[in-house]
Amino acid sequence: MTHPYFEKAAHPRVLAHRGLITTAGGDSGVWENSAAAFAAAHAAGAEYIETDCRMTADGDVVLFHDATLQRLVGDPRPVRDVRTRELAAIFADHGGLLTVAEALSAFPTTRFNIDVKTTEAAEPLGPILEDHTHRVLVTSFSDSDRRATIASVLRAGAALRPATSGGSRTIAAVRALSAVRVSPGRALRDIDVLQIPERHRGVKVLTPPLISAAHRRGVEVHVWTVNDADSMRRLVDAGVDGIVTDRADLALATIRR
Question: Is residue 176 part of a domain?
Answer without folding.
Answer: no
